Amino acid sequence: MVLTETTVATRRNRRRASSYVKAVLRFLVTAATTFLGLLAVTFFIGRVVPIDPALAIVGDRAPAHVVERVREQLGLNLPLYQQFWIYLKQAFSGDFGTSVLTTNPVMTDIARVFPATIELAAVGTIIGALIGVPLGVLAAVKRGSIADQIVRIIGLVGYSVPIFWLGLIALVLFYARLGWVAYPGRIDVVYEYTFTPITGFFLLDAIWQAQWDVAWDLFRHIILPGGLLGYFSLAYISRMTRSFMLNELSQEYVVAARAKGLSESRIIWRHALRNAAVPMVTVIALSYAGLLEGSVLTETIFSWPGLGFYITSSLQNADMNAVLGGTIAIGVVFVSINLFSDVLYRTLDPRTRSR
């Protein structure tokens, strides 16, 4: 009897280990395929756009033989498949060429400006989650009421209004008219050459170093673009929270809890929201990834020195190495967060592991 139970347990453990190995292999294949597709798309976009990288380097007035020599050095005279193979090798080694605009390696520029984008998107996600989740819960609990309609209208406006228009209106109102926030940029010129960042995340660095005047100045610069991104994040998070909560409030365990006499607030916040929190983790992670890739217009409007502003400036100067390198960096982060959120969802919800 003991031997039989041991054999059954061993087989169960083997099946479980086999399923884990298969899941890891599927994840690796999906990640590799996605990243390869991302590199392929960016490569062909770089070859389709009507911008000659050689002319961008030497200028329009350079002699023809100089332009041709630069094209040979860049490998642009080779067949397309050979160019793609060279592009793949360079990309996997972290070499995206040199920026024409800054004359620095593209990866060096990305490492310098990306923390600003991460910081801005993090502020937007925090604002969106802290406000969007309670609004979504309220809309689900008060389904069909005026409160529900207001929350849905707020979400609809967040989805519909162009971000550049809303950003300009916010600048005119809160900066030009009311003076509540600082002018566009990341830090005041007074502190720009006296403040020494450690990690590249200026706000955290200022708080860590207890430079409260710098931290307040950084907050006044980041609150408007971060709040704008937070509003768009709020629209998505509140809508999804409402949907998840409506599904949970219709479950049988909620009916049983009410029959036992539990208070409505306890049912909502400790039972329904707790179960809805599992998919909400994925929603918030995807919202953060969306803000990372969607911050280009926001950074341009507010002169925020992040990756989006870097890509825009490079595109205006025909710096395709910087444009493609920045695009790949955002794409890699977006895909990584997407894959990570899927793994996290399967980890937190055991019901999805067998799918």
Structure keywords:
MetI-like fold; 15 helices; 0% strand; globular; dipeptide transmembrane transporter activity; transmembrane helix; transmembrane; Peptide/nickel transport system permease protein; MetI-like_sf
Structural overview:
- The radius of gyration is 25 Å and the shape is globular.
- The mean pLDDT is 81.
- Helix 6 (146-160) packs across helix 10 (212-249).
- It folds into two domains: 16-92, no CATH class; 106-352, MetI-like fold (Orthogonal Bundle), CATH 1.10.3720.
- It is 77% helix and 0% strand.
- With 355 residues, the protein is mainly α.
- Keywords: Cell membrane, Membrane, Transmembrane, Transmembrane helix, Transport.
- InterPro entries: BPD_transp_1_N, MetI-like, MetI-like_sf.
- Belongs to the binding-protein-dependent transport system permease family.
